[in-house]
Protein: Phosphoribosylaminoimidazole-succinocarboxamide synthase
Amino acid sequence: MSDELPGFTFLTAGKVRDLYAPEGHDDLLLLVANDRVSAFDQVLSRPIPGRAALLTRLTRWWFAQLADVPNHLADADVAVPEAVADRAMLVRRLRMHPVECVVRGYVTGSGYAEYRRTGSISGLPLPEGLQDGDRLPEPIFTPAYKAELGAHDENIPFETVVDLVGAETAEALRSTSLRIFAEASAIADAKGVILADTKFEFGDDAEGGLVLADEVLTPDSSRFWDAAAYASGRRGVGFDKQIVRDWLAAHWDGEGAAPDLPDEVVQRTADRYRELVELLTA
Ligand SMILES: Nc1ncnc(-c2cnn(Cc3cccc(F)c3)c2)c1Cl
Structure:
């Protein structure tokens, strides 16, 4: 997506999203998703058609499911350009907390690596002998400090969250994150999808209230696994990027730029995103 969006000032770009400010509305922002996908810390060269619209639809749906949690969606009368309308969200500008509110129901990824090194994640001691992909006795709040774009977030103990945002907000971040995770994983579970982990971001609005921000419970912020595959011993079968990961693992040594995905992989991945969103939002 070029930076040009009439009536909006380009602010910054993430891996797969751009942030704009609506001219004349400094209390609002526009998040515009694009069809790019990142894997192995690289934004792949070939976009996945329809991905941005599907993930925007999913985030909107989750916000509606989590009606008891204040969120940043704005219903202001600002015209969003037709060209991006199905993959854009007009949101209230918040004072964002610099904490990635990660909740894990299963141990995998960077959390599993930290567990193998230290026996804990974000300072939380865990049972011995856990294997990659094991379900945890109960979901845990494992916050991270927002790293600069492209770097890995650094897991931090709850005490550091208190230092960053104060005890009251830290407790609210933890309790709200755990509550949302419990609600969302129950919804996903009923549809044959494991929500293994997710990352929430929150900010304060002008009244000082805690507001759920950014994208929510999408395959970019969460790991969604196929529950039937997990039950049959095939762990961590991702719903979205597994096709891309498997193809890259078979056709790339991980050095330098990732090769272009073939049409068949792009199409199957696009289908898989649609399948996940239609399964969850049915
Ligand atoms: N409601 C809000 N209020 C204030 N700030 C934000 C905010 C800032 N940055 N990001 C993440 C991001 C970075 C790059 C492109 C993106 F589309 C999004 C979200 C939000 Cl969502």
The chain has a mean pLDDT of 94.
